[in-house]
Amino acid sequence: MHSNDSAAPRQIHEAFTQLLRWAHRGDVRTALLGAAAQTLSPHDIALLRTIAGHGPVRASTLATWSRVDKSTVTPQVRRLEERGLVTRRHDPGDRRAALLTVTDHGRAKLAEIDEVGTGLFGSALQEWSTADRDTLATLIQRLAAELAAVSTGRTTSHG
């Protein structure tokens, strides 16, 4: 860390803590997620998004990616199935295993969540310049990648 950056980690930590408190408020969850906030947890939504982006995928693979035991992912997958958001079918490569795929209803639910959340951030940032919005988007994506790498012991290489 550079000596002139010594205040930055504390300021980022304080801002991040404030954002976490904000994001956990019920009214904010609804503003971020729309109606999905009433029936899906943030973990359910993350799992649904992962299946949509990487499916068809096995539950065991999801557990590995999430760094949890398969027994943790199984009830989440079951909830998504019960809500008609994902479906499972036999893995043609291993008939004992099942592959998970997002349904049309699941994709529509993700699109709804994205539309609501994008609208919230669009409103919050409407007075910001395009350059500032673009910079924030770049840096927050970078921060998310760095935090994920730190928590898993990996490193990233950003300039």
Key terms for this structure?
159 residues, mainly alpha, Arc Repressor Mutant, subunit A, two-stranded antiparallel sheet, 7 helices, 9% strand, DNA binding, WH_DNA-bd_sf, HTH_MarR-typ
Report what the structure shows.
Keywords: DNA-binding. GO terms for molecular function: DNA binding; DNA-binding transcription factor activity. InterPro entries: HTH_MarR-typ, MarR/SlyA-like, WH-like_DNA-bd_sf, WH_DNA-bd_sf. Pfam families: MarR (PF01047). The protein has 159 residues and is mainly alpha-helical. The protein has one domain: Arc Repressor Mutant, subunit A, CATH 1.10.10.10. Helices cover 64% and strands 9% of the residues. The chain contains seven helices and two strands. It has helices at 8-23, 26-33, 42-54, 59-66, 70-82, 104-124, 130-152, and strands at 86-91, 94-102. A two-stranded antiparallel sheet has the order 1-2.
Number of individual domains: 1
Question: Nearest-angstrom radius of gyration?
Answer: 19 Å
- % residues in beta strands: 5-15%
The parts where pLDDT drops under 50 for at least 5 residues are none
GO biological process, one term: response to stress
Domain HTH marR-type: 13-145
GO molecular function: DNA binding; DNA-binding transcription factor activity
Organism: Actinoplanes italicus
